[in-house]
Amino acid sequence: MKSPMKTPTFHIRAYVTKDGSEIRELIHPDKDPHAEMSLAEATILPGRKTALHVHERSQEIYYVIRGRAVMRLGSETMEIEAGDSILILPGTEHAVHNTGSVALKILCCCSPAYSHEDTRLLDEEQEP
Question: CA-CA distance, 37 to 123, in Å (whole number)?
Answer without folding.
Answer: 28
